[in-house]
Amino acid sequence: MEPTPEQSPHHAYPDHWEADVVLRDGGTARIRPITTDDAERLVSFYEQVSDESKYYRFFAPYPRLSDRDVHRFTHHDYVDRVGLAVTIGGEFIGTVRYDRIDDTGRPASAPADEAEVAFLVQDAHQGRGVASALLEHIAAVARERGIRRFAAEVLPANNKMIKVFRDGGYTQRRSFEDGSVHLTLDLEPTEKSLAVQRGREQRAEARSVQRLLAPGSVAVIGTGRTPGGVGRTVLRNLLAAGYTGRTYAVNRAFDEGLATLDGVPAHRSLGEIDEQVDLAVIAVPAHRVPEAVADCGEHGVQGLVVLSAGYAERGAEGRELQRELVRQARSYGMRIIGPNAFGIINTAETVRLNASLAPESPACGRIGLFTQSGAIGIALLSGLHRRGAGLSSFISAGNRADVSGNDFLQYSFEDPDTDVALLYLESLGNPRKFTRLARRTAAVKPVVVVKGARHSGTNPPGHAVPVSRIPDTTVSALMRQAGVIRVDTVTEMVDAGLLLAGQPLPAGPRVAILGNSESLGLLTYDACLAEGLRPRPPIDLTTAASPQDFRDALAEALADGTCDAVIVTAIPWVGEDGEAETGDGQVLAEALTKAVAGGSAKPVAVVHVEIGGLAEALAAASSTAAPRPRTAAPRAASPEAGADRAAVTAPEATNDRAGTTAPATPAARTAPTAPGTATATPALGTPASGTPADATADPETPPRPGRIPAYPAAERAVRALAEAVKYAQWRRQAAVPGKIPEFLDDTIDEAGAAALIEAQLASAPDPRGRPLSHDEARELLGHYGIDVRPTLPAPDPEAAVAAAARLGYPVALKTTAPHLRHRADLGGVRLDVADEEALRRAYGELTDLLGKPAELLPVVQAMAPRGVDTVVRASIDAAAGAILSFGLAGAPSELLGDTAHRLVPATDRDAAELIRSIRAAPVLFGWRGSAPVDTAALEELLLRLSRLVDDHPEVVSVALEPVVVAPQGLTVLGASVRLAPPPARSDVGPRRLPNY
Prior knowledge:
28 helices, eight-stranded mixed β-sheet, seven-stranded mixed β-sheet, single chain, 41 strands
């Protein structure tokens, strides 16, 4: 919406303030600046506000707005006077306004940094979080315009408004003056305000997904009149699954006399339906979708599943159609799954929703599944069905123009019916947010991810999201840091999901192997070693072993305190007549299940070869624990009926305070050890299937086992178990988060670094930024306690001799030309030059071999103590954020890609893990009799660099190379720094839905 000429020509309409937001009840709304064109909307909005709310706003009866009021409330300069409105369907449902004031409370302009703020929300929409969202956005606008404080006068009886200010998390002061409450809010974001904002975001987005998955009624728009077709297929699947809500078939081409179709009411439009429709499944050609969306919006539909294709997967024209689809749906407060979606499933007994193209609804289970590909979704549903695994929910998002994997994580975190979240992703629209949400979710339940399109460098057709240029190995490392279980294939995803959903987490890497085949046991043993586990020698029960022998051996292994997990291997056993028996899988399954029921809480997996019915029998075996009731409601609660409560169960769901559920049990922190050093760790005390509610259970109460997963190959079972071991270790460590050492504050000059950065960027105002010279980089790094050994230019032999005399022998002579930098293998470096004669000789050899001094740019540098050459880097990716990297210099990192990565800001634990996670890490810890190096000094360097790029996003890249780490201390021999205007961040500021 553009301003009229009446508005200030000096301050154009700020379209970047426009935002789509998710409200507390899961519906969406649009926040935008108020313009002079909004006069009629404002008057209409005010007429729908109750007299009581008007009194609270104006402190007196105020039945209608005068022309002067309307003019004042719609004319803003977007600097000293700003008004924002929340709209649904183009109409106002709430407004906020600020006016800059001076110390006496009179209207003012900058540099005055205080403003008076006032809100008004339509009564029908109070309790939906409208005012809370407006406060976040108006505070961000005010900060942008140089306002640091809000002042508000609130009547003591206006408890709702007082609560909005009180719960915002901002630093505030309160006093009672002249019969009203005077509130002053400092607008600088605080840790509490950020936590409150993210907590509200989490509950709202989770609720928006819950409304889609648990509707009270569904209309299939585009249901064919004859069998077949997408719409008719979805209707058939809804009915076959036994959906508990009301179902309607809608098609404008229906004959007027048609009353029912397949036993459900048939209508030509939603307007003919007398009752509320919560979810619409749209299966019409793309050119007819806007008409269907408008019909849904005008009749109060809460969410859409758009199966129709012909959008961004078709190119630029389709991408614009997709954006318009999202804009249209959000304008009515609706969220979208799709377009080009496969559908959604909710197996809760109270819902039984199969609004998808999947012909069979999966069994009820504890796994939540999200996929961006319909084909992959079909494969995953089929694979889980064959393995006897059930699902709690399923979303196939297609082009994921709106609802994304991030929304699914928000939902899964709170959903008490989901124990494991599986995601197939082809693009990450907001990687920073994904890692934040994944870390929080992984603290209470496993998150398993397969990432498609890993090496293409582009997004798949239809995914209109920013492209991240960071390598896939870096993406994988960052996911691991967040606790995500990253696997390569959908088969591995199913394998890991089955183990994590049915078995407790292992307390460590020690594995017992038992079975009736020595060869299969040895294969399993080798696979364990290859995956970094610590297997015990296999126990061979011989081919004559009976199911009772398996039961006894398994019970003994579970009772053994020297193992953390058990893998059972089984081949058809030989009966009394000497022939192999392959049909007794049921008997063996019962024996194993009974052994697990009476044993301790350790994960058990079965590797079997050609034992008929074993996998099916294990899948069908009931858990020894009582089944957990499904809690999803068949109909979403209305805003009037307790909109303050989230519809999904969570410890914090009854208030607006942020906070994440603590991981299972707060285990004592274990200091990082050298690679290969194993330490026994206590059991988590809760199964992998722990939900947020489970996380507060008594850690001494052992979890009862679930279904035992079966695998047709030893490698698959071991790989799934290895992922569970690594995840369990991460979760134990996440229970006590790392810290940023306080000593850094005493040795860091943040203000000095900021002044230097500002001066350097001002001297060369190029949006692409500029590299710093060696001396400038040394100065900047020095502000953060990073000492770079100086180098002196040596344009001729005499200058080299003078430089060496100044620095002191021995010295190094090296070239700094870009094509020779850090290439000792090309002869561009001479070390341990002991005296002037040797220096002149080395200089001559260098120029004779490689070229003229003007080409080589030689420098002289004092020698550093001997040690291990390493490389430390930091860079900023516009999508993923600041990344800290570490590796050994030369071939290990450059040729073999042996580099580790962590997100910034890094903690002491992150720094310790970073240097220990590369494959060549043993070199730092005394490999083959060498002296261990000073890893503590290396960790401190990593923390200082992390702090630098976190404090100053203008530092877009830093490379410290080489960093020579000696047994005592380290030396930074080279540094390159690049400054640039920081890229825009999508994870800061007020809540907003992405617009791709």
